[in-house]
Amino acid sequence: MDAMICCMVRSRLFLPKLESPPSTILDYMSSHFPHIPRAAWQDRMERGLVTTSTGVQVKESSPYAHGLTVFYAREVLSEPSTVEAESILFRDDEILIADKPHGMPVTPAGEHVSRSLLVRLQEQTGLDALVPLHRLDRDTAGLVLFGIKVDSRRKYHQLFADGAMEREYEAVARVGDCPEETSWLVENRLTAGDPWFRRRISDGEPVNAVTAINLIDTRDGLGLFHLRPRTGKKHQLRVHMAAIGFPILGDTLYPEIQEPQQTPLQLLASRLSFADPLTGTPREFKSERRLLHGWQPAS
To answer: Is 5-76 assigned to CATH 3.10.290.10?
Structure first.
């Protein structure tokens, strides 16, 4: 385990309008992050690690102000070691494609700061302006698209918003005997669940989560599923697999919260395909990682 690590990547926090606002920014930070001792925030402020968006140092006595954005350095006392390393599959002047292992967050989160994919790539490439253009859960392995230049990354990000980014995933689940049904189109509405970090299927409109799912192979009581999400809601694939009766192997959140398992979540972001918004050139990238049994991603 490493000693204290202070990541150079800063996090930001917007101060919202509250009916009963606290007296100081310190009061708000302490209540908003109950897992971080108040003394830790006081120490960061004394060391100049908490600032406003204009670069003004936040002090213990700085008053709370609605509309202000606060930047702060992420620190942890120790971080878990990385079992597998990421790999860079492609890089040009505009984008970078990384192949992420299971258990590595894309951006600093919780006890993962310097071992997050973003920070590791920034250190490896020297690209401080590198930004992930979409989300991938920490427990999910596979492809992540990063933007390099500020001026062009908006156009790549827009591909996801416009549905012009073709994304494919592979998942493994227990199926027992080969089920009669092998194809599903799951369409529903996902909202915040209980606890807050889970999602749930809710009644009503609009539908905001759509996934096409196909069972493409079975082996030893397990099935390999091919998933094509048409939307990108948090935990969408995990919820949808549980909804059709085949929760993803290694999932500790769906359908119910479980204790951590030795088998990592068997979900892989296996393919990205799109027309480059700057040149029109067709681009296709495939993950080099494999799930249980060494199943090859679907062609």
So the answer is: yes
